[in-house]
Specification:
- This protein is an all-beta fold.
- The protein is built from no helices and eleven strands.
- A hairpin with a 4-residue loop joins strand 5 and strand 6.
- The relative contact order is 0.31.
């Protein structure tokens, strides 16, 4: 039984930082594509940051590039998202997701496993 469990969300002021964590159990994810999506009220779920191709590549949405950093600790089966210089427009529910394949996808429907989400509020 695969579980992804996010933590680390919260409320911060603009310019602040948060680090999200996603613990994976029942899932050997070291080679597959994993990443973070977010969804603000009334908006579609969007891809934020991903690690793929066996961990050799990363992808960042243009809106977060230079401010967010994705990383993973294979020994701990944990994915992280370090978020710096947060802006009010970063406010959303953030979801960890994993898929069966190595390659990158920005389409939520192509992900096989999802966490329950963690709220990030910047105001």
């Amino acid at each position: 039984h695969v579980q992804l469990v996010e933590s680390g969300g919260g409320s911060v002021q603009p310019g602040g930082s948060l680090r999200l964590s996603c613990g994976a159990s029942g899932y050997t994810y070291s080679s597959n594509c994993m990443g973070w999506f977010r969804q603000a009220p009334g908006k579609e779920r969007e891809g934020v940051a991903f690690v793929y191709f066996g961990g050799s590549r990363t992808y960042y949405a243009g809106s977060v590039k230079g401010r967010f950093t994705i990383s993973k600790d294979n020994a701990k089966n944990t994915l992280y998202l370090q978020m710096n210089s947060l802006k009010p427009e970063d406010t959303a529910m953030y979801y960890c997701a994993a898929r069966f394949l190595w390659g990158l996808s920005l389409r939520p429907e192509e992900y096989n496993y999802w966490g329950q989400g963690t709220q990030v509020t910047v105001s």
